[in-house]
């Protein structure tokens, strides 16, 4: 859909700059959910949506649903890149490490307090948190944890008519945004290391005119000096 409307470099650049926002704008929940995407750093948004996707996944009875599996797979893959191949995400993620460790610490405290060891119980425990209170009341203003916000996002998604369609579109945008912003030299190194899905997405997007590698640049004007007697 984006490649069809990207008739020039300016439009292509604009649609490639969207990281979930465009998917929200195509739905009726942009105002309600935009806080979780364009209004926060990409790395923080990625962690937030990953946790919300997990909460939705393990609270769903239809685990064989193709769209649900797609969301879960892309969500896990993006977290894998963030933790195991951060060089591919450096240009966009921001200061995500503190967010990750604070979120992990808060989750561990909750699981320890309730003696939880099973992931299904863990998701139920997180979803049981009352999201009517401000995060600062529960986690303190010094913590960068997104556990509370992820719980709020998951509950908001569960209230939608077609949450999986929206979630899958958001994850495709988050994937595409990371692909086009990763340095070309980093992508080039991947085939010799086994290859990465992110690199193939980057190649596909450039093929469709959505990347940054083939942007039109103004041609430098040359003047010819003619000397007359």
Secondary structure: helix percent: 55-70%
- Stretches where pLDDT is under 50 for at least 5 consecutive residues are 219-225
Number of domains: 1
> What do the pLDDT scores average to?
85
Label the overall shape.
Answer: globular
What's the main sheet like?
none
Q: In angstroms, what is the radius of gyration?
A: 21 Å
Number of strands: 0
Q: Structural class, from secondary structure content?
A: mainly alpha
SSE order, as H and E? HHHHHHHHHHHHHH
How much beta, percentage-wise?
A: under 5%
Terminal Cα span: 61 Å
Number of helices: 14
Task: Furnish the topology, listing elements before pairings.
Layout: H1 2-5, H2 9-16, H3 21-25, H4 30-33, H5 42-57, H6 66-84, H7 90-93, H8 97-113, H9 119-127, H10 135-139, H11 147-158, H12 163-181, H13 184-189, H14 197-207
Helix pairs in contact: 5-6, 5-11, 6-12, 12-14
């Amino acid at each position: 859909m984006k490649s069809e409307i990207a008739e020039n470099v300016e439009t292509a650049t604009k649609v490639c700059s969207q990281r979930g926002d465009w998917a929200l704008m195509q739905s009726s929940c942009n105002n309600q959910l935009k806080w979780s995407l364009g209004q926060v750093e990409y790395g923080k948004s990625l962690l937030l949506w990953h946790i919300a996707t997990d909460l939705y996944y393990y609270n769903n009875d239809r685990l064989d649903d193709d769209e649900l599996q797609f969301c879960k797979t892309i969500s896990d893959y993006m977290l894998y890149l963030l933790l195991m191949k951060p060089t591919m995400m450096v240009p966009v993620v921001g200061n995500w490490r503190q967010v990750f460790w604070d979120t992990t610490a808060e989750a561990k405290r909750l699981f320890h307090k309730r003696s939880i060891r099973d992931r299904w119980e863990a998701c139920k425990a997180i979803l049981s948190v009352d999201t009517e209170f401000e995060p600062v009341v529960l986690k303190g203003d010094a913590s960068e944890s997104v556990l509370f916000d992820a719980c709020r996002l998951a509950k908001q998604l569960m209230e939608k008519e077609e949450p999986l369609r929206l979630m899958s579109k958001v994850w495709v945008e988050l994937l595409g945004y990371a692909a086009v912003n990763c340095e070309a030299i980093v992508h080039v190194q991947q085939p010799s290391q086994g290859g990465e899905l992110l690199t193939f997405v980057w190649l596909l997007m450039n093929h469709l005119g959505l990347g940054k590698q083939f942007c039109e640049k103004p041609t430098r004007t040359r003047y010819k000096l003619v000397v007359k007697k």
